[in-house]
Design goal:
The chain is α+β, with helices and mostly antiparallel strands. Helix content is 43%, strand content 24%. Bound molecules: alpha-D-galactopyranose (GLA).
């Protein structure tokens, strides 16, 4: 982290002249342990923040000019707050900070001009939420510079709004929420309807969370994601006609779903079944962890993958291969896809002594079959965003 702070400070000085009045913020990426595609169904999720971050240096300007420099791309954008903030299709990375400033203005926050430089250690396109971390870093930096009053859950919703309505990705609130509220040593059980949360100590003993990046990101991620949302909504319509208290899939159980099966296309039925069973698996996982039953937690991770693969259909050949190979390694208690899907990463619950074997067996075999080098990341649960 010290290194990244030095690098971003140096880059800031180079681009903007000096470092007077600088605020430095870090905001982490995340890995979701379990609870996939449940957040936008008012359900439960169970992510942890990871030790890979966006590190941002920012300061105010006396005028209305905003200048944002992306150190990793060596690109800069500049625009004036006197004009409406516009989407930039030439510098797509800039739409995350732009979107946050736009959402703050929409919320009635009076902004001043600013200078920002940032860099990141979260592998891009990995599904570890580098974009949510960039939004969160911007929001926390601007909050510090301007001093507006927002609770952290409110800030998470604001960043989600930026992504939904400015960037155009209809994500749920999980990624922004965990990037703001993560805590070292804890995973976070979030109720995405009420935004109530509970920090659950991640006491894994000799076990570790191993994240394996497949190195693939399939096209259509966003359109398939938005389509899944619509499929869930049409499932809710059928359920609500029969059971009026159902407002979201969170309110339904398998019995209700069975009662409506005849009135649903088979694909809608499968999508609903995933979400309903996944919500149950999150709560069971938390109970297993509280009871120190890692074997059970691992089984639930495996079941989650199978459900995402068969019912929700958001996995892909490369990820399925990584999961199959991982499950053959002795000491792996569970392996599943994590994040939005169609590539990205797997999350594995693995004995510390088995990590060597994982890298020796899974990675070469994966490379042999796909021609792609997968990457392994071991991370403990990290803190959420902070001013450094
Ligand atoms: C993406 C979205 C999240 C969540 C996951 C799937 O990461 O940004 O809101 O829906 O997919 O669980």
């Amino acid at each position: 982290m010290k290194r990244e702070v030095a690098m971003v400070t140096e880059a800031f000085a180079k681009v903007f002249g000096d470092t007077d009045g600088l605020t430095i913020v870090r905001a982490p990426g995340r890995v979701n342990l379990i609870g996939e595609h449940t957040d936008y169904n008012d359900g439960y999720v169970f992510p942890m923040a990871i030790g890979y971050d966006i590190v941002m240096a920012a300061r105010k300007r006396p005028d209305q000019l905003v200048r944002i420099h992306a150190c990793d791309y060596e690109r800069m954008v500049a625009f004036s707050l006197a004009e409406p903030i516009a989407y930039d299709s030439e510098e797509p990375w800039s739409n995350y900070p732009r979107g946050v400033l736009w959402a703050l203005q929409e919320a009635g926050v009076k902004l001043s001009g600013m200078e920002i430089a940032f860099l990141g250690t979260i592998p891009q396109g990995s599904g570890l939420s580098s974009s949510a971390a960039l939004e969160v870093a911007t929001a926390v930096a601007v909050k510090h510079l301007t001093g507006f009053e927002f609770t952290l859950p409110e800030l998470a919703l604001l960043c989600q709004r930026a992504e939904n309505y400015f960037v155009g990705m209809k994500c749920g609130v999980m990624d922004q929420f965990i990037s703001l509220l993560g805590r070292e040593g804890y995973a976070l059980l979030i109720d995405c309807r009420t935004l109530a949360y509970e920090r659950i100590p991640l006491e894994l003993g000799d076990y570790r969370i191993l994240v394996c990046h497949s190195g693939v990101k399939h096209r259509l991620v966003d359109s398939e994601y938005n389509r899944r949302r619509q499929e869930c909504e049409s499932g809710v319509q059928v359920l609500a006609a029969e059971f009026p208290p159902v407002r979201a899939l969170r309110d339904a159980d398998l019995e209700m779903l069975a009662a409506c099966r005849e009135r649903m296309a088979p694909v809608i039925y499968k999508r609903c079944r995933h979400v309903i069973t996944e919500n149950e698996r999150v709560l069971k996982s938390v109970a297993a962890l509280k009871a120190g039953d890692l074997k059970r937690f691992g089984e639930l991770l495996n079941q989650s993958h199978d459900s995402l693969q068969q019912d929700y259909e958001v996995s892909c050949a490369e990820i399925d291969l990584l999961v199959t190979l991982a499950r053959k390694v002795e000491g792996v208690l569970g392996a599943r896809i994590t994040g939005g899907g169609f590539g990205g990463c797997t999350v594995n619950l693995i004995h510390a002594d088995a990590i060597g074997e994982f890298t020796r067996r899974v990675l070469p075999e994966y490379h042999k079959q796909t021609g792609i080098e997968a990457q392994v990341y071991i991370s403990t649960a990290a803190n959420g965003a902070e001013i450094l």
